[in-house]
Amino acid sequence: xxxxxxLRIMDEAxxxxxxxxxxxxYPLPWSQEGLVKALCSGTGFVFCNQAGATLGYCFVQAVAxxxxxxxxTVKPEYQGQGVGRQALQALxxxxxxxxxxxxxxxxxxxxxxxxxRLYHSVGFxxxxxxxxYYRNADGSREDAIIMxxxxxxxx
Length: 155
What we know:
Blueprint: E1 6-9, H1 15-25, H2 32-41, E2 43-48, E3 54-63, E4 66-74, H3 83-98, E5 103-109, H4 113-121, E6 125-135, E7 141-150
Parallel strand pairs: 4-5
Antiparallel strand pairs: 1-2, 2-3, 3-4, 5-7, 6-7
């Protein structure tokens, strides 16, 4: 059973642990400055358990009727427990209820098969490719798959 219980809005006090998780999860993590910019220009969400402990986070940016999912990360100790799936579903429901967005877009590394399975399983579709989008720690480049989730009118 997943320990996920809900989402809350991120604030600047969350950024130190977010940066630490970035360092644990990614060979080329976002910088502290990049995290501050992401929070200031968009919205961050924190994934929590029943006691309010943090399980992961994401950053989104809304423009007109579209949302971009900029970063979606589950702490390593909670990966593989359904936290990502439940957090993503809660995020999609949050934006669906607002009834002002048509689509949510994201990019994912072609090598990130776990993320691709997750995104496909909740209804994302592959709509394109960005060649050499990601930089790897060894200096090589990796393609990104562009994915989209379509929100359906509820009225």
